Batch of 2 targets.
Target 1
Amino acid sequence: MRYEDDPDLEIDPEDSPRPATMFLRDPTRTIIARNDSPDVPFETSVNPYRGCEHGCIYCFARPSHEYLGFSAGLDFETKILVKEEAPRLLREEISSAKWKPQVIAMSGVTDCYQPIEKKLRLTRGCLEVLAEFRNPVVIITKNHLVTRDVDLLAGLAAVNAAAVFISVTTLDSELARRMEPRTSSPEMRLEAVRTLSAAGIPTGVLVAPIIPAITDHEIPRILKAAAEAGAVSASYTILRLPYAVAPLFEKWLDEHFPEKKDRVISRIHQLRDGKMNDPRFSSRLRGEGIFSEQIKSLFTIAKRRAGLQDRSMELSVDSFRRPARSQMELF
């Protein structure tokens, strides 16, 4: 099915992706994914969508689309698989006696608040389930749309079961438009931090990824702006370019930063052991070498000056509950 062919599904012009996007049903029968990577701070995640309309040129998840027979380039951002049954599947899985209450991350791979979520509301449906069970959740997003669900998130936060991290890569709106064409603007992301923080929801900022020689100089300004908006914590990752992402990024540099291309690639090589990507757990998120240490030092000092903590915010499973099923449901 092509969701854009549904006359009841009207997409606002400001949200409409360019070029046109096709939405396809994902027939998945499970929704909670497991992760055993030692450098990822969560074990379980929920991703209602595969592929992402945001179109971020650097997205490390792009190669995952090749497993589906699509390209990591245009297909990744224009052929989106939709897990229509995500809320129902989530309810079934955490209702099971086998479920051990734990933090679930949303947007572990692709953004759960990409533009189509405004209409399909699958992420909200999953949050409604998590709120009912009081299962803790961490959300990572680049989209102001997360503020739509402040009611559910505030309720979970009241029992220390919710936190949100807003990814802010740059404060330059023009650069953001070229690099992340269908995300919320930097101003709107900071506005999301304000809204969430004002509602009592612990909110952090992720400067992710930092692109050497293009965005690294913005670190102090980003952290200062995030703190002023109400963020309480901050962390970062450094650009990584697995598989097909590397040539896509190089082509993007040719188009937008030809005068900086050699310098950017040289820095990446110095951060990534002479390669465009280093998949080792010990260095894939932060890199290594002198430039890695310089970025770490700059970030640490800027974070301290802004009064921000590390990213980690401990959530609790103490309020988890399995709601009693109604007589009609039992019948």
Target 2
Amino acid sequence: MLESLPGELGDDGLLTLLTSRALGGGVPLRAWVRGAEADATRYEDPAALDLELMPLEVRRRLDLAGAHMSLAAWQAMELVSRAALCRFPVDEDDDLADFARAARDAAAAVGHALRERPALARPWDLPEAFSAVRTRASALGFAVEVISWAALREPQRFALAHLAAPKRPDETFGAALLATGLVAP
């Protein structure tokens, strides 16, 4: 896996991983996971911040790439492979295909396959996503304006749309609303 991601971890990333492994996972990885929004650490599940669970940003990238990775596949991968997928750049048009290939290779290396599906056309940017976020926020006593929603970065809209699902805890969704600045305290 690492051979397919030359330089992606960098010296700081590799040092953090080695330190974390030496200390039994006691070093939070969130500080150097590329693509992780600084405010995401305020509402991301702590297990995702330490890469036990898949971070929301990796979920978003998989959705965009048209792939689904099971939790079993994610957890079967070495920590360094999970971290590499978190740090994989997706800034250019071809990056998502490369990311999907790297994720497929990482999952296959531990005996799992990614499930292919049509790449999602950013459903978190559809009016239905905004409506779901607004409705859930209203139930928690927050007012959400469309202009504020439109001003958010894509990873923030994805996270809020994902966390607006009824099965997600109110506390997590409320924290995300505040952390992204969509609502004021």
